[in-house]
Amino acid sequence: MNWRIKPLALILESAEKKSLTRTLGAFQLTMLGIGAVIGTGIFVLTAEAAQKAGPGMMMSFVIAGFVCAVTALCYAELAAMVPVSGSAYTYSYAVLGEVIAWMVGWALILEYAVAASAVSVGWSNYFVGLVERSFDIDIPAAFTSGMHVGGVMNVPAAVIALLVTSLLVLGTRESATVNAILVAIKIAALTLFIFLAVPVMNMENFEPFSPNGFMGEISGMGIAGAAASIFFAYVGFDAVSTAAEETKNPQRNMPIGLIGSLVICTIFYILVAGGAVGTIGAQPVIDPATNLAYEPGSADIAIACRQPDNADKLVCSGEPLAHVLDQIGWKTVSKLIGLAAFLALPSVILMMLFGQTRIFFAMARDKLLPFNEQLTKIHPRFHTPHVVTIVTGLAVTVFAAFFPVGVLADLSNSGTLFAFLTVAAGVMILRKREPERHRPFRAPGVWIVAPLAMAGCAFLMFSLPLRTQLTFFVWAGIGLLVYAVYGYGRSPLGQNGHSNGATKTPAPAQD
Question: Is residue 69 part of a domain?
Fold first, then answer.
């Protein structure tokens, strides 16, 4: 069978023909990683995790963080070996072949584009809460939520998606500089939250610790379901690897950026989640008809949360961290937390859009996407892939305008977990196939770490709600159809006889 494996040497050679400018160092990469990771997951999805797992979401954070940690080691090894745009897509092309690479790239659309939409919705929640508390006005729900929960269109989410797209068109260096400022704001806000919430924790609020059990009686619920959802809070770290082609000394700086950002974020998450649970509790809202917890993001829980008895619960808040401080008496500080989220969440949207555009750029450069010549155009003044950035930004805007945050986050996770599983498999395959290849960074204990990463990703994938799993498989089927109709026949590897590690001279670049 012809797997059309693209040799690493050919990947590096073709990247040089349409390359991006290397401007990012280790500090900027770490800040980009923190900027991508700390965001909607901790600022918004804490409430969703509480509804799924109750105080047991503390364990969910640990499970998701562990899966990300072992996956990060695999990512660091491949990112240092293959310092070009494309992330898991490019790595899969070099290891598992063109079909799998296409599927990974297709899945990454769910990770980055849908994630950017989810964060835009999360930002909208804080924006609306901040405006309503600060000016004592009530913004109509029809313009702050999608049709799924009774609204018409989430206007603030659409606006922020368009603004961040415009910023990315201006340039990578400019985006990274703005991002570093926003990261500092986020870290300051979370530090303040920890300082105020942790000292007043009440251990009674941790009981019962797991009201919905580990797996839950409903698909996607329980500690496992919360871990699968809260995984969204960590996944931004792999967006760092999409910047490899724009990184100075990537062999050194990529592992620092990947692992450093993940470690810092994990520490913050555990402390923040503990403070939120310990201060006001995190018990789910129960459906009296079934005696089971409502599904997060559903119309039923939206109705239940409007009842006076539930309105003050953590699980009913669209801005849980600000809500916690408001409930324990820090009303002015809660506005500051809301302001910090309002200012800082756009950095996460920025990194998600950044990652998606670079993967589209790599796929178009490999001639696997329609209109590849237009998509790989570099702006003559800003030196950014402006066409693909604008196209991606418009798609993100549409999703943000009409879908709720929880549904978008779970769908994003499905694509992420598939890509992560592929990366872990690729590390082991490449260790066997090319053991002598220079590895600036080697994942320690790879024959333990990589299988753990694969098993963890598979476990979280099947802990997602059933509808999310089905949506992913339908999306994958559409991707295979697109590849069969367009990409397979136009791939330079197929036309020039490259397969299974062949190293014939690559076709001339078509400018």
Answer: yes
Distance set, CA 44 to CA 38, 80, 121, 323, 334 (Å): 11, 33, 9, 11, 14
pLDDT band at 179 (very low <50, low <70, confident <90, very high): low
What is the distance between the alpha carbons of residues 57 and 47, in angstroms, rounded to a whole number?
Answer: 10
Mean pLDDT to the nearest integer, 23-45: 75
**What confidence category does residue 173 fall into, taking pLDDT thresholds of 50, 70 and 90?**
low
Report the CATH number at residue 159: 1.20.1740.10
Per-residue pLDDT, averaged over 395-421, amounts to 84
407 lies in a domain? yes
Three-state SS at 109: helix
- pTM (predicted TM-score): 0.78
Q: What integer best gives the mean pLDDT of the chain?
A: 79
* Angle of CA points 442, 448, 453, to nearest 5°: 85
In a domain, 378, yes or no: yes
* Domains identified in the chain, total number: 1
Say how far apart CA 179 and CA 284 lie, in whole Å.
Answer: 35
**By percentage, how much of the chain surpasses pLDDT 90?**
6
CA torsion angle for 333, 337, 338, 344 (degrees, to 10)?
150
Distance CA 258, CA 279 (A): 32
- For the chain, the residue count is 511
Residue 327 makes CB contacts below 8 A (sequence gap 6+) with: 279, 280, 312
Residue 340 identity: A
* Domain extent for 323: 26-495
Is residue 456 one of the residues assigned to a domain?
yes
Please name the residues in contact with 395: beta carbons below 8 A apart, sequence gap of 6 or more.
113
CA 314 to chain centre: 23
